[in-house]
Amino acid sequence: MQCFVYKSARRAETYIYLRERDAFELLPATLAATLGPLNFVIELSLSAKRKLAREDVDTVMANLRGPGFHLQLPPPPLETTH
After folding, report:
1. What is the pLDDT of residues 6-18, one digit of tens each?
2. What is the rounded distance in angstroms from the CA atom of residue 14 to the CA atom of residue 38?
3. Looking at the domain assignment, is residue 47 inside a domain?
4. What pLDDT is stored for residue 80 in this prediction?
5. Could you tell me the residue range of the domain that residue 70 belongs to?
6. Residue 17 lies in a domain
7. Which of 35, 54, 72, 77 could crosslink 8 through cysteines, CB 3.0-4.6 Å?
8. Considering its fold, how many domains does the chain have in total?
9. Considering the domain boundaries, does residue 12 fall inside one?
10. Short-list 64, 75, 82, 77, CA closest to 16
11. pLDDT at residue 77 above 90?
């Protein structure tokens, strides 16, 4: 399954995976407004055998088959103990 990854220009470490290149109409209007401009990062070929750094590939593929996009948010901040 091919997907196209875009980085939010407004929100740090926030990415959108789309099932079609530049298919921004798949995004809900409120989400698109929150993310601001999106910059193309990479085209990926996804499969159940492929590992992604911060996302579960099966979840990403299910979201691409369903609503057509997957939102990757930044990782939670690390807790520090004193």
Report:
1. 999 999 999 999 9
2. 10
3. no
4. 66
5. 1-7+23-39+57-76
6. no
7. 35
8. 1
9. no
10. 64
11. no
Closest CA to 71 of 2, 1, 3: 3
Does 27 reside within a domain? yes
A 10 A CB-CB count for 57 gives 16
Cα–Cα distance measured from residue 60 to residue 75, given in angstroms and rounded to the nearest whole number? 16
Banded pLDDT at 78 (limits 50, 70, 90): confident
Q: What is the structure's pLDDT at 76?
A: 80
What pTM does this model have?
Answer: 0.89
Instruction: Give the model's pLDDT for residue 75.
Output: 84
